[in-house]
């Protein structure tokens, strides 16, 4: 599995925050001892910026962490200094979305609901191009499409992500890019859904109201239990990562309810293929 520097940075941030709190030090006191500003230390502890291994070593000494425990964290900090593939697309990926892609690259499981559009991991090249045209314009279009297709490698790597998708039936009806694009897109979803690590379910209109009517989401879980699961929400201009256990638990319950309300995978497959024939 990819050792994502984003996940490593998040782990270091959490560990340093917990160690400072365990040492009963305020941000002010710790920042002064580490010869950095309070705002910089706060941003490090919130994974907004990285920290160099030598500064991690200084922080661990301050918090009286030594030996194998210290060396393990310093090694993680070294990994956080590496570059992820998505950073080569920083000219077209907003910083807040780069953070999400970095999490996605190492996720062991993704649970997501979409109400309007096909999720990026299931989009065809033509559909992705049309989505970007409508939501972001022509600038950097081909680079954005290339980055989106590169993200899909998580479905096909040696240890692929376990993907559970619930699609609102509206996604199957909204014509994006014309009939040919839509027909190909729906067949593509049905094809990808046959992978053993992918489950796609359609939430039919007949299901009526449901708990995610106004809240598309992604829940990301990781193989290493030291990396806590996170809920990711997105709008037109920013993304929000909710890391509290209560958020993850709440959205996980919603996802299970949506799966209960949705067509089962077999019926969803048939529905996708039938819907594709509505775009001759």
TrEMBL record:
A single Gene Ontology molecular function, please?
DNA binding
Q: Where is the signal peptide?
A: none
Family matches, as SMART domains: HTH_XRE (SM00530)
Task: Name the Pfam families for this protein.
Answer: DUF5753, HTH_31
Q: Which domain of life is it from?
A: Bacteria
Q: Which InterPro entries match?
A: Cro/C1-type_HTH, DUF5753, Lambda_DNA-bd_dom_sf
Alphabetical list of Gene3D superfamilies matching this protein: lambda repressor-like DNA-binding domains
Domain named HTH cro/C1-type: residues: 16-70
**Alphabetical list of SUPFAM superfamilies matching this protein:** lambda repressor-like DNA-binding domains
Q: What is this protein called?
A: Helix-turn-helix domain protein
Species name: Salinispora tropica (strain ATCC BAA-916 / DSM 44818 / JCM 13857 / NBRC 105044 / CNB-440)
């Amino acid at each position: 599995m990819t050792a994502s520097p984003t996940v490593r940075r998040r782990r270091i941030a959490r560990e340093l925050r917990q160690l400072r709190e365990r040492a009963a030090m305020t941000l002010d006191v710790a920042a002064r001892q580490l010869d950095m500003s309070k705002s910089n230390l706060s941003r490090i502890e919130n994974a907004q910026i990285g920290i160099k291994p030598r500064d991690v070593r200084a922080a661990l000494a301050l918090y009286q962490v030594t030996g194998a425990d210290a060396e393990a964290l310093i090694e993680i900090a070294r990994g956080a200094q590496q570059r992820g593939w998505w950073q080569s697309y920083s000219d077209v990926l907003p910083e807040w979305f780069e953070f999400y892609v970095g999490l996605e690259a190492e996720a062991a499981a993704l649970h997501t609901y979409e109400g309007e559009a096909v999720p990026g991991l299931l989009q065809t090249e033509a559909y992705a191009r049309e989505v970007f045209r409508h939501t972001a314009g022509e600038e950097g279009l081909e680079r954005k499409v290339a980055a989106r297709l590169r993200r899909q490698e998580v479905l096909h790597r040696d240890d692929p992500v376990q993907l559970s998708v619930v699609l609102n039936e509206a996604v199957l009806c909204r014509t994006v890019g014309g009939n040919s694009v839509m027909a190909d897109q729906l067949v593509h979803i049905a094809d990808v859904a046959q992978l053993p690590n992918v489950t796609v379910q359609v939430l039919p209109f007949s299901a009526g109201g449901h708990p995610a009517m106004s809240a598309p989401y992604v829940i990301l879980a990781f193989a290493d239990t030291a990396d806590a699961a996170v809920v990711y929400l997105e709008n037109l201009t920013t993304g929000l990562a909710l890391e509290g256990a209560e958020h993850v638990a709440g959205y996980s319950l919603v996802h299970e309810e949506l799966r209960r309300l949705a067509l089962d995978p077999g019926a969803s497959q048939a529905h996708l293929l039938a819907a594709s024939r509505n775009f001759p």
